[in-house]
Amino acid sequence: MRGASSFLEKLNIFGDPGQVTIQPTTAKVSGTVVVDLVKWMVMGTPHDTNLWAYGDGGRIYKATTGGSGTWTVE
After folding, report:
1. Which of 65, 44, 61, 45 is nearest to 53 (CA)?
2. Does the pTM exceed 0.70?
3. Which residues pair with 22 in a beta bridge?
4. Theoretical Cys-Cys bridge with 71: which of 33, 37, 41, 56, CB 3.0 to 4.6 Å?
5. CB under 8 Å to 39, separation ≥6 — which residues?
């Protein structure tokens, strides 16, 4: 059926082959620390609980995941 996949927005069809679930909503983290276009992100586990990001300007950013969501330039 042509265009049938257009209704799959925000659905997780890969998590569990036996069911379809809804993806979590995105949340905006306000601030002006990140000035690059982020090209790559990775979780720091098992070494830490931070989120690390690499911007197109060559900067490395760290986001703390302890509830505050603070971004810093490393």
Report:
1. 61
2. no
3. 11
4. 33
5. 54, 55, 56
